[in-house]
Amino acid sequence: MTVPSVLKLSLRIRQTIIRASQPSFIPDCIMRIILVRHGEPKVDQQRWIGHKGFMAFMDAYRDAGLTPESAPPDHLAELTRGMTRVFTSELPRSIDSARALVPDAEFISDEVFTEAPLAPPRIPGLRLKVPGWAVVSRVAWHGGYSPRIENFRQARRRAQKALHILLDAAAEDGAAVLVGHGYFNAILGRMLRLKGFARTGSHRAEFWNTVIYDRPTAAASVTRAGRRSAGRPGQNDDAAPLHSLRVFLGFRRQSA
């Protein structure tokens, strides 16, 4: 048997193993990307705080892991059953949630999947609850207030890189799962819609929120060619901040 024949046979065997490990409910003709928001972090939420208090809360929130009481719902565990690798951000709440969801999978943690940052504006005398400060900070962020943090354009460019990683994984395995963050997931979701993916579910500010994106694999062959235009400014780009902001306003009920 020639070397090229051996390589082709190895590739076919690997593809067969990958297909066999996929959840049975994912058709072979579908490329699927599943965006999951992390579970509830173990962090105390103060009732009424100023902007400095919110900054201190965000530091604690960044370092917080998953609270033991926050288990993934059964339908999500069934949805991700059989997945061999799961993508996460570098933050503890993302990694802990992935481990709770698919404990036997390979975990690929990357800062490219981290949440879009927040910085509360200095408003003397203003005291709000954590969800209120989150909304004020996100509105200010979209308005251009990004002192020493990533701005919206930079976050969108980072989302393009994250999207390419997920697309490559889904093209190889048939499906890709990201256990990430609510607001950044919404940015990724809009990009997937622009690339022809159909959406099941809605991006909400709820722990373990899950949104599924499917696209026929016939379109997967144009993935690399379409990347050049994925982040190209178009007539709908101006609506992106408003669309994502509407998602984030659900933060009134839960923290981001």
Describe the structure.
This protein has 256 residues and is of the alpha/beta class. It has a single domain (24-252), classed as Rossmann fold (3-Layer(aba) Sandwich), CATH 3.40.50. Helices cover 44% and strands 12% of the residues. The protein is built from nine helices and six strands; from the N terminus they run H-E-H-H-E-H-E-H-H-E-H-E-E-H-H. It has helices spanning 3-21, 51-63, 74-79, 92-101, 130-142, 152-173, 182-194, 223-230, 240-248, and strands spanning 30-37, 85-88, 106-109, 175-180, 198-200, 210-216. Strands 3-2-4-1-6-5 form a six-stranded mixed sheet. Strand 2, helix 4 and strand 3 (106-109) form a beta-alpha-beta unit. The chain is globular, with a radius of gyration of 20 Å. Mean pLDDT is 83; it is low at 6-25, 219-225, 227-240 and 247-253.
Keywords:
256 residues; alpha/beta; 6 strands; globular
Give a topology summary.
Blueprint: H1 3-21, E1 30-37, H2 51-63, H3 74-79, E2 85-88, H4 92-101, E3 106-109, H5 130-142, H6 152-173, E4 175-180, H7 182-194, E5 198-200, E6 210-216, H8 223-230, H9 240-248
Parallel strand pairs: 1-4, 2-3, 2-4
Antiparallel strand pairs: 1-6, 5-6
